[in-house]
Amino acid sequence: MTAISGDAPATEAVPAREVESRLRRECEGEVQFDDYTRHLFSRDASMYAIKPLGVLFPRHSGDVRAAVEIAGQYGVPVVPRGAGTSLAGQTVGPGLVLDLSRHMNRIVELDPGGRTALVEAGVVQDQLNRAAAPHGLMFGPDTSTSNRATVGGMIGNNSAGSGSIRYGMTIDHVRELDVVLADAREAHLAPVDEDERKRRAGQLTLEGRLYRELPRIAAENADAIASGFPQFWRRACGYRLDRLPLPGQAGSPERQFDLAKFVVGSEGTLVLATRALVDLVPKPARTVIAVGHFTSVAGAIEATEDALACDPAAVELMDRQILDLARGKIEYASLSGILEGDPEALLFVSFTGDDDAALTGALDRLTSLWSRHGHGYHTLKAVTPAQQGSLLKVRKSSLGLLMAAGEGTRRPLAFVEDTAVDPVHLAEYTGRFKEVLDRHGLSAGFYGHCSVGCLHIRPFVDAADPGQVATMRAVAEEIKDLVREYGGVNSSEHGDGLARSEFNREIFGDELYEAMRQVKGLFDPHGRLNPGKIVDAPAMTDNLRDPALPPAGPLRTQLEFEVVGGMRGAADRCMNIGLCRKSESGTMCPSYMATLKEEDSTRGRANALVKALSEPDPHRALGGERLHEVLDLCLMCKACKSECPLGVDMATLKAEALSHRHEQHGIPRRSKVFGSIRRLNRLGSATAPLSNLPGRIRPVRLLMDRLLGITPDRPLPRYTRRNLVRWFRERHAPPRGAATAAAGADPSGPGTLTYLADSFTTYTEPGIGRAAIELLELAGWNVSLETRGCCGRAAFSKGLVEQAKDEARHLASLLTESGEPGSPVVGCEPSCLMTLRDEHRALLPDDPAVQDVAGRVRQVEELLAEAIDDGRLRLDGTSWPAGRRILYHGHCHQKAEVGTAATVELLKRIPGAEVVELDAGCCGMAGSFGFESEHYGLSMTVGGDRLFPAIAAESGTTVLAATGVSCRQQIFHGTERSAWHPVELVREALLTGPAAEAEADDEGAART
Predict the structure, then answer these.
(1) Is 908 helix (H, G, I), strand (E, B) or coil?
(2) DSSP tag of 204
(3) Euclidean distance between CA atoms 85 and 236, whole angstroms
(4) Closest CA to 91 of 35, 28, 48
(5) pLDDT tens-digit readout, 844-862
């Protein structure tokens, strides 16, 4: 076998600078050979790590061709890569990595009539589906990673998904391929008849040899091909010699010589695909889902037979371990309200089609069968997209949720997760599989595709423990033998890679395996294309990621990282599944969505931090310039904390890293200014309106740009002299209860609360705080205003951790001393309010005042909705907001910490309001980020991705609402439309009387 070391000995003697120089001269795409980039691309979603020589980001097929030629001249292997989500290690290797996802991602042509699409290799599956959807079409293979998996990666892997029982695998949907061969020549692969094959075989090129020699290999090994492949159809393993015409079939129209399909699943070891012509299939108009609840995994699997009898589109299993992990994540908070009882397993049975009656009939038939045969204790019928949303989201996130259960280097590893047997044998096979795990003392999560006999079973193994590595290998060998006993396949959709290629000789037999080695030698005579995969592979226990990391060096951190391994352990929780590379849904990761650069994803930053924290002097490494470049574009939106299934909190990691950089290089002037924003805003308010003049004078703005790096292209906030503090002090508040009685509500109040006067709206938008306080008092609350401290959010975001600690300690003390025990602490600026319950705990984990305040934080929207529901507040159906369409954009920190449900529900209380919550990601402003000269362009790009277009598509009568001050600033700057804070709209809806109504209409018209 060929050993491939994680340090890439095959390239040790290669003049890396010379290769890099040639690539820079001859390729248009970016070339990166620095240590950080090499580390980032040494990993994929598998348990392996191999550091490459460097990375090229090709812009077109000409770059790919040049790269293969240059690499060949220097004896450097070439490893193609898409999203880097391979679970078996296909996309890591020594040599030159080609990241085809950044630039080669165009849909070249979509032909609805012919039901085909011509796409570049880096096109993402969901991107293709969105383009095809208006024509009622989609790409058939529906992987759970569809929001980041590239078509090129799917071709290399022969991917499939939950719907493979109906749509098959990627190989069934590939018509033609444009590829670069090992000799650096381009070729077009498509089905050809025998005459054309013979014509092409006459060429004195590598392509000609393929057409000459492959038929010979197939003919000489016909018996081995007929008997050596696993019996089960769902195969993502080996080279597809079974797809070539055998002797006597060469002239058959049904068995044309099809190299395009032959190379599907070859994992980049035979050719490098640059374009693909793929088939599209009709997209069903409707989907309905039956969700069976079971008291055991075995019971759920046994119910599969009845499900298959009803001709479903998919049958998916999820066990209790994954369900419990989902319940603990804000992303899936609604799940608990949907399920019945406390199931040990769920079985999702999907039916698709265009006939409502037929779909309903299928659901009823299945429910009846399960009831008659005693399967499960409850069946939930999800027939609308709203009912299905939470369920489908959890099902697609099973892998990530299971990964989150890992602790330290004990992780659920992918080494036996891809087997498949005929569903008839699945229950018995799974039982014996579990016996193997039990005998070796391993636990595992169970999920996957019961409809095609494929369960993704991932045992928890500590790969840093040599004893457990030996156990892992023993289990892999036993399962390999077990699956052969049932006529199944060892790799059914995740491929061979480094995890399973070692066993291919045993699986296919000597004769067929040698034929596959001949295939590799024919296509790639010098073994340069992704070596060590499918044939001539290293041992499955070589190149493991966790043992390769050196022990973490000593490091004193200012923040508390409550995971095994401290700060490095927090970063190394990332298992590279790549959810942060999604581009058109959710919030994570806004900078990646704008740049499509690996290092701008949460995954890229986490891996960069792992590298820095593995250096002999991690403190010094955290201050390094290249690491700073990688972290710089992180907007600290905190979306990764909730959307990343493993909860990698990059905002906290970046704050800690910045603090170490400041210790070494000093604190930048601009960071000091923005870190003390409360003082600046208080001064601006005290001197208004004079303080607003500099923002309008161009020479002053240019000077601010030069001295502080504050862009002149963005308007500065306008200060208000009569700020919230002055208003509260000067006003004549009605006696508690009098206002509620006047409004017709119960005068008995709920108690006392503290309203946090945040550092922003207090001085620039005091009307928000006024509206909130008035509503709370009308609801019977006795409101005290806390104005004496800053939460420290601004300082924290700039890495001024000591300052943030002092501010946190001071504010927590004030809130504890001034508020009644257990009384709520509320506010209207999510970034400040959420800091009390998140960052303060990381800054001061042992401070009892911090813990007390964190437990008292409530969203003002919750209290107001409660007051409306029990009659303490009554909204006016004739007010101007009533009956309006309200488009709501949630704040990133709110979404990450508590979700936006409370705000949406409050807005829905406005009589007749149509409330639409945008899925527009981060607005791009991110506090001071959007004011910084070097970040302004990216900030606008992020906003222009989804948010600005969504607002532009709305009519002028639509009311815009946003909870974040930065969001409202960005919306106005990017669309010239103002957004209200939701509490302002509720306050407007409370106004009564003709004069007040006319005043509200005038103001509402002005702001919309």
Answers:
(1) helix
(2) S
(3) 16
(4) 48
(5) 999 999 999 999 999 999 9
